[in-house]
Amino acid sequence: MNGSVHRASTVVDIQLKRGPAGLGFNIVGGLDQQYVMNDTGIYVAKIKENGAAALDGRLKEGDKILAINGHKLENLLHSAAVELFRTAGEDVQLRVQQAPPVPPVNGPSSSRPDNESSFPALGYLGISLATVAVIAVVCYRFKLFTRRHF
């Protein structure tokens, strides 16, 4: 996710109750460890399976956490943000800028129907093979005519 990111501003408030394993997600970013170029914000790196965040279902990997219990997270060192999460208490209020949805990776990569072949892949291969065959025949015949018999 490194690089400039243009986000649609969908901001939501999420209330989580700390479970036995904490809030159930990892964070990245901060003033000293920018996750997104030119952005010192704190982002959700990983949602832990069966953790408080996963069970709630609203927080997603890539979301930007704007505030925790009213404390803004912009321009903080990563360690300072971690400390705010550690000391946030049992009931935690998050203000989150949701990441844009990620397109599925298990689908067709083009709008071509499945029964259509790709001309660039097969057509160029066929043309290349035909060209090589023609050149080979021309070279073979040229050698026959240029041989001198003594």
Automatic annotation (TrEMBL):
SUPFAM superfamilies: PDZ domain-like. Gene3D superfamilies: 2.30.42.10. Residues 13-100 form the PDZ domain. One of its GO terms (molecular function) is protein kinase binding. Its main location: mitochondrion. InterPro entries: PDZ, PDZ_sf, Synaptic_Scaffolding_LAP-MAGUK. Keywords: Membrane, Mitochondrion, Mitochondrion outer membrane, Transmembrane, Transmembrane helix. The chain crosses the membrane at residues 121-142. It is found in: Mitochondrion outer membrane. PROSITE patterns: PDZ. SMART domains: PDZ. GO terms for cellular component: basolateral plasma membrane; cell junction; mitochondrial outer membrane. GO terms for biological process: cell-cell adhesion; establishment or maintenance of epithelial cell apical/basal polarity; receptor clustering; receptor localization to synapse. Binds (via the PDZ domain) to isoform 2A of SYNJ2 (via the unique motif in the C-terminus). Interacts (via C-terminus) with RALBP1. Interacts (via PDZ domain) with ACVR2A (via C-terminus) and ACVR2B (via C-terminus). Forms a ternary complex with ACVR2A and RALBP1. Interacts with MAPK12. Interacts with DLL1; enhances DLL1 protein stability, and promotes notch signaling in endothelial cells. This is Synaptojanin-2-binding protein.
